[in-house]
Amino acid sequence: MVKHVEPDQILVKMPSLRAVKSFVAAAKYQNFTRAAEALCVTQAAISRQIRELEASLGVELFKRAGRAVELTEAGTIFYDAAYLSFVNIAQAAQRIENSDKQKQELTICCSPAFSAFWLSSRLPSFFAANPDIDVNVVTTNNFLQMEPGVHPDVFINKASDPREGYHSIPLFYDLIFPVCSPLYLKQHPEIATLEGLQHTTLLNLSPYGRSQIAEHVDWGVWFNSLGMDIDVGIEGERHLFNANDYNMLIQMALNHQGVSLGWHQLVAPMIEQGWLVRAGDAEARYREKLHYLTYSENKKDNEAFCTFKDWFLKCIAEEPTSVVNAT
């Protein structure tokens, strides 16, 4: 039994696209002759198509005065909608025609801090060497709960094989030490000692919004790694500022507002440029807290991914905490 389809009223009532195309050209140039030249047809063809369109719509679209034409109010309304529609159609057609020539794309997911302090300064060299590859970066601190429709090709995170269909490569471990601005250290020389640090303003990274809380390091964890407890009770609250935005904490440190923990791979460039300094020599190495390059297995032979992976691992191998050469 054949099932009959109800007529699509939008398509049924749609004017002739050829007529609309002639109208858009005439409205754009406000001259039938120039419209005919633009479409490589005769002026008579333009005039005929527009008369048919006006008859179909039941309104005049142009005010005619000799060779000059001017849009009526109805013509202006129709032109605005029709021109935008043709622009969208033309762009879609161009994308389809160039589909074989389009750049390759990779979507990379990492933390906002890694994106801002590590990736952004190095990607220009990748783009310069690989102009045929586009990179989309998605940032989050909750790698285990991506937004619907977001399917990164690559994760840079602390979870090894966090989801089915992905494989992980170990990158580097955490080396963490206190950092502040040169001015803040000059004004508070006592922070060069662990005891002095406990009596200054500590900019603390809170775990809120993070999926891997077990991997989280804050001032309490850091001091404990060095065999000390930090007082975060009533007496110590005035010295502790909490935020789950690491970018904010580093900006506050740059603005001489306290001492933040510095992850070497993130703050090393700012130390090299003199924007930040280490507050003392104390540091904690967390060799068990590895970061990974996690990639979709269906991308393992993808040319763009392989190019990015080789470049990325070469950059990571230069990090003093890198484990790339050991794998």
Q: Which labels suit this protein?
A:
41% helix; 21% strand; 327 residues; 12 helices; alpha/beta
Overview of the structural elements:
41% of the residues lie in helices and 21% in strands. Strands 3, 4, 5, 6, 7, 8, 9, 10 and 11 form a nine-stranded mixed beta sheet that branches. A two-stranded antiparallel sheet has the order 1-2. It is α/β, with parallel strands linked by helices. The protein has helices at 9-13, 17-29, 32-39, 43-57, 73-97, 112-129, 182-187, 194-197, 219-225, 246-254, 264-272, 303-317; strands spanning 62-65, 68-71, 104-110, 133-139, 154-157, 166-180, 202-205, 240-243, 259-263, 277-278, 284-296. It is built from twelve helices and eleven strands.
Short description:
The protein is of the alpha/beta class and 327 residues long. It is 41% helix and 21% strand.
- SSE pattern: HHHHEEHEHEEEHHEHEHEHEEH
Q: State the secondary-structure class.
A: alpha/beta
* Number of beta strands: 11
Low-confidence stretches: none
Helix content: 40-55%
Write down the overall mean pLDDT: 85
How far apart, in Å, are the first and last alpha carbons? Answer: 64 Å
Q: What summary fits the major beta sheet? A: 9 strands, mixed
List the helices and strands and how they pair.
Elements: H1 9-13, H2 17-29, H3 32-39, H4 43-57, E1 62-65, E2 68-71, H5 73-97, E3 104-110, H6 112-129, E4 133-139, E5 154-157, E6 166-180, H7 182-187, H8 194-197, E7 202-205, H9 219-225, E8 240-243, H10 246-254, E9 259-263, H11 264-272, E10 277-278, E11 284-296, H12 303-317
